[in-house]
Amino acid sequence: MGPTGPQSPTASAPRDRGMKDRDDALRTCCPSAQPDWAGAVAFGIIGGTAREPRVGYLEVAQPVSGQLLKLAEPVSPSEVFRFAASCLHGGCVHFQDDACTLVRRMVQLLPEVTSELPSCAIRDSCRWWRQEGAAACWRCPQVVTDNYNPSGAMRAAAHPPELMPAA
Ligand code: SF4
Predict the structure, then answer these.
(1) Which residue has the CA at smallest separation from atom 1 of ligand 1?
(2) Can you tell me which atom of ligand 1 is nearest the CA of 117?
(3) CA 42, 44, 49: angle at the middle one, nearest 5?
(4) Number of helical H runs and strand E runs in the chain
(5) Cβ-contact 84, 44 below 8 angstroms
């Protein structure tokens, strides 16, 4: 569904295409990662309000450092920043049938909060963008990785149905 990237048809030979797909998969990043994942970078800062958070996207993604994490104190870094790091694929509870079910639920359940593509430093490698295209980006600014005050729709989007906690 993504309008660009590896899902776009190319004229490459099957063998080359297979290698390209593998290389692209290795570079695909999760835009709701934790800062202690290998190679994590911060690409957004949470603004807005507790009820209506909005991500401000950094012009340049910043490597995680002790200094950066300290800026979030006294709350957790993932309440203040959005981090990206390599997609965990089958190591993630949301990854099924070669797809991220988290962003699939987001697109189904969350409202759009912008009609424009945010200027996002990680778009080229973002799994959500690659899988769902602009529909993911129109919803992405309301996502807080560690969200202790989620709406009902956000709670439903954030959990696979079988792992949904009791209200
Ligand atoms: S979904 Fe879109 S806006 Fe959000 S991190 Fe991915 S590319 Fe950036």
Answers:
(1) 137
(2) 3
(3) 135
(4) 7, 6
(5) no
Rounded CA gap, 134 and 161, in Å? 24
Domain spans, the chain: 27-161
Question: Ligand 1 pocket: which residues have CB below 6 Å?
Answer: 31, 118, 120, 122-123, 126, 128-129, 136-137, 140
Identify the residue whose C-alpha is closest to ligand 1 atom 5: 31
Would you state the structure tokens that stand for residue 14, as one six-digit string?
Answer: 């099957």
Token representation of residue 86: 């390599």
Q: What is the pLDDT of residues 96-144, one digit of tens each?
A: 999 999 999 999 999 999 999 999 999 999 999 999 999 999 999 999 9
pLDDT in tens, 35-62: 999 999 999 999 999 899 999 999 999 9
CA of 120 to the centre of ligand 1 (A): 6
